[in-house]
Amino acid sequence: MPKIKPPKKADYVRKDGTYVSGPNSLDYRGGEAAYLVVYTVHDALSVVGETIVKKIQKNLDRNYPPASRSGEFPAKRSGDLQKGIDYEVDGMKLRITSSVPTKFPYDVWLEVHANRSFMKKTIENNKTKIKQIFSQIKKNMPKKKFVFQNKV
User: Fold this and answer.
1) Residue 9 lies in a domain
2) Secondary structure letter of residue 85 according to DSSP
3) pLDDT in tens, 3-53
4) Measured torsion, CA atoms of residues 65, 66, 71, 72, in degrees rounded to the nearest 10
5) Residue 65 domain-assigned?
6) Please, which residues have CB within 8 angstroms of residue 109's CB and are 6 or more apart in sequence?
7) What does the alpha-carbon distance between residue 117 and residue 98 come to, in Å, rounded to a whole number?
8) Residue 135, Cβ density class (10 Å: 0-12 exposed, 13-18 middle, ≥19 buried)
9) H or E segment and range at residue 48
10) 89-103 pLDDT, tens per residue?
11) Has residue 78 been placed in a domain?
12) Residue 55's pLDDT is what?
């Protein structure tokens, strides 16, 4: 397990070696605790990414004809848009991506200009599911490693 340095600035350090900073803070219990938080959040973001990609791909599984109308999910012609949906987790950031092998940025045009949002609309429609994933991850965190000062 890589060593993670303690926070540089803390309000005070307790006798047991925990670092505390502020009323709504997390007691720092060494490198293992920080490691667990980072990798647990990373795993949660991966689960959210997989879930959202599957939901977007499902929403794009509408056959053409007929063409989609304003406000609807785009209809599938070649399937390239549906296949080009992916995600990546970089540290503690989740990025949902879309790539279509064309000269014209068709995916951006649909999402932003044609009122046929497929990414934002899917994420908005699944906020509850995303919250459930993070709640489940929070429940599974080992309680012995962390002491929460106040509930925010």
Assistant:
1) no
2) E
3) 545 445 555 556 666 555 555 555 555 666 677 778 888 889 999 999 999
4) -60
5) yes
6) none
7) 12
8) exposed
9) helix 31-59
10) 998 899 999 988 888
11) yes
12) 97
